[in-house]
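Practice problem: predict the structure.
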Amino acid sequence: MKTFAIAVCIVALGSGVLVTQAVGGNAAPKPVTVEIKNAQGQSVGAAVLTEATHGVKIKLDVKGLPPGEHSLHIHQNAKCEPPDFKSAGPHFNGAGGHADHSGLAAGDIPDFSLIVGADGAGHATVIAPNITLGSDDHSVFSNGGTAIVIHAVASEASSSAPPRIACGVIRPE
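Answer:
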C-alpha cells in the first residue's frame, strides 16, 4: 500500500511538471515595441506589435508626419537607413519568400490606411493577417528581423510603392 501511495505521488508530481512545462511553452510572445524614425533620424512615434488570433496586432502612434493617408507595410530587411529607407528592401514575404493564397506579400496589410491629421499625429490599430511573432516562416523575426515602413501616400501595390517617409526595425526584445 505504501509503495502504491508513493507511485501515485510521483505520477502526480510528474504530471504537474508536464502541465507547467506545457503551459509555459505555449505562452504568447511578449509585445514588441518598435521606434519609428523619419528621414532626419528623429523619432516620430512607435508601433507596438502583439500576437493576435489571426496575425499580429499593430498599435501605431505617430507624430510629425505629413497630413493625409499613408500606407504601412512590413518590409523584408531589418534595416532603416535614411533618407529613403530602401535598405528595408521589398515587402516581407516570409522566410521562404512565398505569398499567401490571395497573392499578397506577408507584409501587406490589406484595406488599411494610416490617417494623419493636420497636426501631424496619427493613431491606429490594425491586424496584419499574414505575419506572426513566432518562429515560423512568416514570423517578423525569421529573417533576422524586418522593418515597419510608412509610405508617403496610401498604396497596396508593392511594385509601385510610393516613397518611404518613416521606418522602424523589428527585432525581438
